[in-house]
Amino acid sequence: MTIMRLNPSLLATLLLPLSGGAQGADLSPGEHIPALTLPTAREHKALSTDSFLGKKTVLHVFASW
Amino acid sequence: MQTGEVQVYGIAPEQYGERMALFLQWQQLDFPVLMDPLNLLGVKAVPITLLVDQSGVIRYRNPGPGELKDFLRSEYPLRKSAKAPPALHPLTEEFSNALRASDEEAGSAALGRFHELEEGAQTPELSFQAGVIARWLYDLGGRPKLFQTAIDCWKAALEEVPGQYIWRRRIQQYGPRLDKPYPFYDWVEEAQKEVEARGEQPVQLTVEPSGSEVAQPLRKAEVLRNRDYPDVQNKLPNEKELLEITTTLIPHTDRAETQRIHLQLQPQREGHWSSDAQEVELWLFPADGEAILLASEASAIDEKNEVSSEQRSLEADCSTELLDSGKLVLFYSLCEEKAGVCRFLKSEWEIAEEVAE
């Protein structure tokens, strides 16, 4: 019956390579959409924000809750 | 969804992709949604709607109806993107694949890889991401303490950036009902039923939401109707061997006076749950005053199994002050060996002592 109090910053240092991408990206008008590759919810396929190029896009950032 | 003029995409900064897939199936939405559980996009809140031109330049953020018409009518100059998107990070893929496959071996390998990474700068973003991965590893099973690790990571991140509501929601998803802006995943059961009623197979979830994840928010502390304390004469011994109890504490994100306790209960040796006594009761004995019943609804036993020794969980909201000064007492029924004797047991412990260990 113990509670593990692992130092979060120690764990966090192990994750540095994950931080590539668009931390705190500026989503203001006039800015480029951040360059990211993420898995899709349904097919779990890697899809990048490059897929948006060539057509006008409505991008909805949302959650199911 | 593409109409020729405009295409629709989504990005969802949620912990589990399958829940979003079920949501899309339920709502019959067919546009592609990219899952961003680590919040690499870095948004602070949702929803956000962006209108993006064919060169990838954001033209409107949260547009009104008139602006949508203007966007569709406008012709924008073609511009080159400054940077090509990076590949999907192999760790993201590895962890999410292991979770989807419920593959503990793959999870252990991913944990090994996770620990091989070199040290680097510390940021709240990384702390949040560490929490996401810790919770995934917890979901794979066998590492019950990683839930507290996830919460501690998220809490550390939020303390640095209190206005980051994506991080705040990740704690609130599991936290006290007094801290919940909404129930989060109470829609899942209804969605599964409706999808089945349409003759479709609902998207299978790797982690079914339960407890706080489906609980309704509370605006005022709830007083539970007390039952009689089961061991008034203090005759039952403090059982320490037959049940492993792992405690996770989830804080209120604004007010330290309330916490949610999650208990994971795992029978040890050949212990198994008694089929005729599903109830588990969690009581709190404050330093002064009478015992308070905190919870009596543990997760159900799988009745398909003849002998059930599965991990069960129990959750309750509690005052931090009472929790810090008092002791917790758990009552439960466990049986020893397949056809052995079933007994009504008690385990008690103090949270303050555990945290200090």
Q: How would you classify the quaternary structure?
A: heterodimer
Instruction: Sketch the major β-sheet of chain B.
Output: 5 strands, antiparallel
Structural class of chain A: mainly beta
Label the overall shape of chain B: elongated
Largest interface: A-B, 60 and 110 residues
Mean pLDDT of chain A: 73
**What's the β-strand tally of chain B?**
12
Q: Number of helical segments of chain A?
A: 1
Topology of chain A as a string of helices (H) and strands (E): HEEE
Shape of chain A: globular
Terminal CA distance of chain A: 33 Å
Largest sheet, spatial ordering of strands of chain A: 1-2
N to C succession of SSEs of chain B: EHEEEHHHHHHHEEEEEEHEEH
Summarize the structure.
The complex is a heterodimer of chains A (65) and B (357). With 65 residues, chain A is mainly beta. Helices cover 9% and strands 18% of the residues of chain A.
Please give a handful of descriptors for the protein shown.
heterodimer; A: 65 residues; mainly beta; two-stranded antiparallel ribbon; 1 helix; 9% helix; globular; disordered N terminus; B: 357 residues; alpha+beta; 5-stranded antiparallel beta sheet; 3-stranded antiparallel beta sheet
